[in-house]
């Protein structure tokens, strides 16, 4: 059965103790959350998925702190981003992690293997905030404003991160790329 | 396929499917564990209070202990029944609460 309730309604129900409502929120946002964390973390997928679970549990625990119930998605991604950034900064084996991610990535459908390799290396060369902005705005189609709210960055910084990241990623594909 | 399409295909390749029961179950399990530990933590102040009360009441209890002995079984039974009823009611409320 499809639950047609909005995020805000589910948050209100989860706040009053409904595990079923929180499960619906998990179901609704797990794919985007893991799709964001996996390339961002640069390690194996298991580590990113573990972090996604941690972010969801933290969200459950802090539901009462969420001011705007309809902003659950942005708030959740913000929690995940802070956890991921903290973990990325704490590790001293950044290059080793990035290589591990490249090996586990495989070749996505429609992407040439050499392009995937170049893009993987270029992505891992971006700073974590740049990578986060690129993933939210270019992969998940978030607006710059939404990304700025989730990552707690100024709007102008997000725009420049996205623009610079996109340019750097497209440059490794070779040839001219369309602007926009 | 434009370069932007290629880029998007690459960036979204790690996104899992819309349903992942194993992942959702794992989150539910972690939430249950977190709730358990939070409830244990919430009990901590009461344990401290109970310990302090016991320490301060000990001299009185030692003196009146023999007089209270006959009541211990009755008080224990009533208290136990009350605790069991409260725990069961709590579980039933949580289990059948509409979402």
Can you walk through the features of this model?
The complex is a heterodimer of chains A (180) and B (99). By secondary structure, chain A is mostly helical. Chain A has one domain (7-171): PhyR, sigma-like (SL) domain (Butyryl-CoA Dehydrogenase, subunit A, domain 3), CATH 1.20.140.160. Chain A has helices at 7-15, 19-41, 45-61, 72-90, 94-105, 113-125, 128-139, 144-151, 155-171. In chain A, helix 2 (19-41) runs antiparallel to helix 3 and helix 6 (113-125) runs antiparallel to helix 9 (155-171). Chain A is globular, with a radius of gyration of 17 Å. Chain A starts with 6 loop residues before the first helix and ends in a 9-residue tail after the last helix. The model of chain A is unreliable at 176-180 (pLDDT under 50). Chain B has one domain (3-96). The interface between A and B is large, with 50 and 33 residues.
Strand content of chain A: under 5%
CATH architecture of chain A: Up-down Bundle
Our count of domains of chain B comes out at 1
List the total number of helices of chain A: 9
Identify the CATH homologous superfamily of chain A.
PhyR, sigma-like (SL) domain
SS-derived structural category of chain B: mainly alpha
Summarize the main sheet of chain B.
none
Show unreliable segments of chain A.
176-180
- What is the arithmetic mean of pLDDT of chain B? 86
N-to-C terminal Cα separation of chain B, in Å?
45 Å
Multimer state: heterodimer
Number of domains of chain A: 1
Give descriptors for this structure.
heterodimer; A: 180 residues; mainly alpha; Butyryl-CoA Dehydrogenase, subunit A, domain 3; B: 99 residues
Could you give the topology of this structure?
The complex is a heterodimer of chains A (180) and B (99).
Chain A lengths: L6 H9 L3 H23 L3 H17 L10 H19 L3 H12 L7 H13 L2 H12 L4 H8 L3 H17 L9
Helix pairs in contact in A: 1-2, 2-3, 2-4, 2-7, 3-4, 4-8, 5-6, 6-9, 7-8, 7-9, 8-9
Chain B lengths: L2 H9 L9 H76 L3
